[in-house]
Each structure stands twice: as structure tokens, then as C-alpha cells.
Specification:
globular; binds beta-D-glucopyranose; five-stranded antiparallel β-sheet; Beta-galactosidase, Chain A, domain 5; nine-stranded antiparallel β-sheet; 2 domains; alpha+beta; 13% helix; single chain
Length: 437
């Protein structure tokens, strides 16, 4: 595993013009993984974070070293021209290490108005988002932790990219082309958010933009059979922080066997930067929602929101009806439901607006997806210590997870989540930040 990596690494100095110093010593087989990890780190950091000199003690016999260098020389002749200089709008820093020694990097995108988005290559997690309030004071408006151990421990998907199938699949089973697939039942009897090791727990390959834009491309390959899903899936997610104060997320995926895909981002917002979200006003462009059973699996019905606590066609306080006796509110312990978005799926259209009355921040969400899971942090119970020691109580944050409907693989009438070889899944979601009056 590490040898090809090492080989590839030798091409890097030829591209970047940064010397790698090599030295031979015994015991190279045992040291292989450690070397590979160092090299891997350099590769991920790429050109935006090139140290001035790179000293690598490659502990291996001289003949092996010479063979590798020859291969590296041959490969370097076919390399692309040197990449652009460091991008000042994408800062890269080391965030920590996973227990198996992999380096986790933090990429901070900053736009011309000073808005900053911090994203990890671990889980593609949006760890911070600093936006101004009506007075121009910046605060971090997403829930999460101060450091990597928080994200490595069990947590409710703070800021994470979720896949291969975001939301629930009933009983962790579905049929495709007549074959039944069995997934991990990691949420009672159901499968949730991609399984035991979903995309939120992967180290993604990160490529910061080299053209000066505030953009980060993340890629991963989920192998055939990963968490029970068929097909090797290539996924790419690009975060772009525009100078119009939008955080845009573009998703794409291709497969080599028929599979199911539902990708989202699971950020918990709190537009005041602290406290509960009950006084935020929310408007959702949805005439219908998908009612659920006691396990939060859709019944299959598309029910009108009219006359129910799910009617957000005009702005409403999130807290106004959150404890309503309506059986669906009781089933969700608040809002934990998929809304059927008005307009044409595939078209980028505005589907939500949220306003926070004390600080005046406004969030508008647009998406190409057919649905959005509006989740009001009902399972936060005060046991998680978040940023700056904050306690995350029930309803400290809300999620607007743009997505396909839950359990679509078992619901023939829902828009399909099947992806076949030769097809490409794409979706876009844009979160726009502004100040109220
Ligand atoms: C689900 C909730 C779940 C939360 C954290 C949301 O997307 O709808 O039911 O508790 O994610 O896992």
C-alpha cells in the first residue's frame, strides 16, 4: 500500500521544485507506513502548504532507493507545469491526527467581506462559519467542537458530509435489480446516514483551488460493498465561498454498478451564535411534507402542510408549534421531517429563509434537490460540550439537510435515488448569508 504512494511522492518535488532529502538506513520495511504517512501528508497539503524544504529519511537499502529514483525521474518527465502560487483565500493548517496517524487538515476559505468557512478533510466537516450580524460583528454560527477529538468521538453529524445515503433506510434493507442489499442497522432497526462508517468518517482527498478562488474540492472513492452498498462510488464535493456571501456546495457521484445515492451536509445552524433556535423565524417553500412512523420512516404519503404545524409557507417562529399535540410533531419530538420542496427538482431555486431577530442574521437556502430535512436538534440533550465549552441543549441548532426523500429505495413513488453506471448524480445547495435591518 505505502510503496506506490512513496513512488508517487517522488514525483512531487519535480512538480513543485521543492527538494526532498533522502537517506538510506536499515529497517525500512517496518518504517514503511510511517514514511507513507509523511508523504501522504505532503500530497494532501499539496502546493498551498509547501514547506520550504522537505527532509525525509527514507530508510531503505540503496538499490531500492536508486530504483525508485529512476522511476521518479521517468515519471517527472510527463508532469504538468508547476502549479500556481499559494492561494491567500484558502489557508491550510494541521488540525490533528486520527488514531491511526493520518493527518487531518483544516482549510479556511475567506471571502472579500471577511466571511470565513473552516472545512476539514475529515468528513468534509464544516467546523466553523463566521458571518457578520446586523451591526457587523462576526460570530461562528454553526455547532461543533474546538478540536479533532470532539469530531472523532460519537456526535450527531455536526457539519458533516453525509453519504452514501443520507437519512433513513427502513430496516437497513432495499432491493435493486431484484437483489436484496443489507446495510448496518445503526439507528434502531434502520440504517441512518450511510452506516457505521459513513462519508462523515472518511478522510477525503482535498484539493484547494489554485486560481485564487475560495474553493475546496473533496473527493473520495467508496468501494463496492462499502457499508453494504453495491458499486464502487466516486464522489466529489466542492465547497465555494463566494464574494456574494454564499457558501455553495456542489455534489457529484458516479458508480460502476447500480446503487443508491443521497448526499447532504448536516450543519447545525444557530444564527445568534448561541442559545436556542426557538425564536428564529423560518419560511419553507413546501406545500407538502412526508409524514413518518414512530421510527421516523416515511409512510409514503405526501401530506399537505396546510392547517398543520408544518405550514411554513409564511415565516413562523420555529418554537411556535414545536410542542404541538399534532401526532407528527410528537413522533419527531419536534421537527425532524422531510419537506417536499416546491418547484422543479434539478433547478436551483430558493427553498428556505431563516431570520434571527436579536442579531439580525438572515440565511437563505437554495437547492436543486427535491427535499429538505428540517431538523430542530431534538436529540441534543445537553451531554455534548461544544465550542468554547458551550453545552448543546435540545434545540440549540437547526439543520436544513437538502436531499432526496428518506427511504426512497423502498418507496417507488418517491423521486428515484438509483444511480447506474454511465450516469452522473449532481446536486447543488447554496446557503446565502445577509444582515437584516
Ligand atoms: C435525523 C435525526 C437524527 C440527526 C442526527 C437527522 O438528519 O433526521 O433524526 O437524530 O440527523 O443523527
Amino acid at each position: 500500500m505505502w510503496l506506490p504512494l512513496l513512488l508517487f511522492a517522488f514525483q512531487v518535488p519535480c512538480v513543485q521544485g521543492v527538494p526532498i532529502e533522502l537517506a538510506a538506513s536499515p529497517g525500512w520495511i517496518e518504517k514503511g507506513p510511517a514514511i507513507a504517512s509523511t508523504v501522504h501528508e505532503w500530497l494532501i497539503r499539496g502546493c498551498t502548504h509547501a514547506p520550504e524544504s522537505r527532509k525525509l529519511e527514507v530508510a531503505m537499502p540503496r538499490p531500492a532507493l536508486i530504483a525508485l529514483l529512476c522511476a521518479a525521474f521517468a515519471a517527472s518527465c510527463t508532469q504538468a507545469p508547476p502549479p500556481a502560487p499559494d492561494n491567500p483565500n484558502v489557508k491550510v493548517s494541521e488540525y490533528g491526527k486520527t488514531p491511526d496517524g493520518q493527518t487531518v487538515l483544516l482549510f479556511t476559505l475567506r471571502n472579500r467581506n471577511g466571511i470565513e468557512a473552516g472545512i476539514l478533510n475529515y468528513g468534509g466537516i464544516l467546523v466553523s462559519l463566521k458571518t457578520p450580524d446586523a451591526k457587523g460583528e462576526f460570530a461562528d454560527i454553526v455547532l461543533g467542537f474546538d478540536d479533532l477529538p470532539g469530531y472523532l468521538a460519537k456526535h450527531p453529524y455536526f457539519g458533516a458530509l453525509v453519504g452514501r445515503y443520507a437519512n433513513r433506510i427502513a430496516k437497513g434493507k432495499f432491493k435493486l435489480n431484484g437483489q436484496e442489499y443489507t446495510l448496518a442497522q445503526n439507528n434502531g432497526v434502520n440504517a441512518l446516514h450511510g452506516g457505521l462508517k459513513g462519508f462523515d468518517k472518511y478522510i477525503w482527498h482535498a484539493e484547494p483551488a489554485e486560481d485564487g478562488e475560495q474553493r475546496l474540492r473533496l473527493r473520495l472513492t467508496s468501494p463496492d460493498g462499502d457499508e453494504g452498498y453495491p458499486g464502487s462510488l466516486n464522489v466529489a464535493v466542492t465547497y465555494t465561498l463566494t464574494d456574494n456571501d454564499e457558501l455553495r456546495i456542489d455534489y457529484s457521484a458516479t458508480t460502476d454498478r447500480a446503487t443508491v445515492v443521497n448526499l447532504t451536509n448536516h450543519t447545525y445552524f444557530n444564527l445568534a451564535g448561541e442559545g436556542l433556535i426557538l425564536d428564529h423565524l423560518i419560511q419553507l417553500a413546501a406545500e407538502k411534507y412526508t409524514p413518518v412512523d414512530k421510527d421516523l420512516i416515511p409512510t409514503g404519503e405526501l401530506a399537505p402542510v396546510e392547517g398543520t404545524p408544518f405550514d411554513f409557507r409564511k415565516p413562523q417562529r420555529i418554537g411556535a408549534r414545536i410542542n404541538d399535540p399534532h401526532p407528527q410533531i410528537q413522533a419527531g419530538g419536534g421537527y425532524d421531517h422531510n419537506f417536499v420542496l416546491d418547484g422543479e427538482p434539478g433547478t436551483l431555486r430558493r427553498i428556505a429563509m431563516v431570520q434571527e431577530p436579536t442579531k439580525g442574521r438572515v440565511l437563505e437556502v437554495s437547492t436543486t434537490q427535491p427535499g429538505v430535512q428540517f431538523y430542530t436538534g431534538n436529540f441534543l440533550d445537553g451531554t455534548l460540550k461544544g465550542k468554547g465549552g458551550a453545552t448543546y441543549h435540545k434545540r440549540s441548532g437547526f439543520c436544513l439537510e437538502t436531499q432526496h426523500f428518506p427511504d426512497s429505495p423502498n418507496q417507488a413513488a418517491f423521486p428515484t435515488t438509483t444511480l447506474r453506471p454511465g450516469e452522473e448524480f449532481t446536486s447543488t445547495t447554496v446557503y446565502k448569508f445577509s444582515k437584516g435591518k
